[in-house]
Design a protein that fits this description.
Helix content: 40-55%
Largest sheet: 5 strands, parallel
Low-confidence stretches: none
Distance between the termini: 30 Å
Strand order of the largest sheet: 2-1-3-4-5
Radius of gyration: 16 Å
Number of helices: 7
Order of helices and strands: EHEHHEHEHEHH
Strand content: 5-15%
Structural class: alpha/beta
Shape: globular
Mean pLDDT: 95
Length: 201
């Protein structure tokens, strides 16, 4: 089983990356393979509502969004991480998520567990956390939680390691996602049927 961890920061090794590494450690401790996906700091076009994806089966912009969809088909779970910019996800992460969840075939994500993490110096984490939860929440993805909201605090990467509670939250999140993935696998092996898939509204 594999989980893809998406880094929505413009800094690959920054605070968000450190937090995702802690989640990955919790997953690997439980035998789950992990893959990091960095969306980078080049400008991403946002969704232009052209609806060509309904015709093409992919986003009209041929960039990393379509690349990610191909990876997502082979993944069993996802963690989406973002720094907090004025109590919201980063601009690139917002564009990425809007286009990804609008254009991707539903089967790439449906019924696959997802988690969201946010990173900030101090405040705004819960607003950004709620913003990103909307995407898996409309795609029939089981949402994985931890022992507190999935947030870390610090201005620099090294500050995150000093946020003992935040690091623990990330590790517990990894353990919880690994447990849920195993439960889903066990359910399939036992012949538990999935609910009927519904079209997006």
């Amino acid at each position: 089983m594999k989980v893809i961890l998406v880094n929505g920061s413009s800094r690959k090794g920054g605070c968000t990356g450190v937090a995702l590494n802690e989640v990955a450690r919790g997953l690997r401790d439980n035998g789950i393979e992990t893959e990091h996906f960095f969306i980078g700091n080049a400008a991403l076009p946002d969704c232009i509502a052209c609806r060509k994806c309904r015709e093409l089966g992919r986003c009209v912009f041929q960039d990393l969004v379509n690349d990610f969809v191909e990876r997502a088909r082979q993944a069993d779970g996802f963690v989406f991480g973002t720094p907090v910019h004025y109590a919201a996800a980063s601009g690139n992460m917002t564009a990425f998520m809007d286009r990804l969840f609008y254009s991707a075939p539903k089967e790439a994500f449906c019924r696959k567990p997802a988690a969201v993490i946010t990173s900030a110096r101090r405040a705004g984490t819960t607003a950004a956390y709620e913003q990103l939860l909307k995407y898996p929440g409309i795609t029939e993805m089981p949402i994985v939680s931890s022992c507190y909201w999935n947030n870390v605090h610090g201005s620099r990467a090294e500050d995150i390691q000093q946020d003992e509670e935040g690091v623990r939250i990330m590790r517990v999140l990894g353990h919880n996602m690994a447990w849920l993935l195993r439960c889903i696998e066990a359910g399939k092996a036992a012949g538990v049927p999935e609910p009927r898939k519904e079209p997006l509204a």
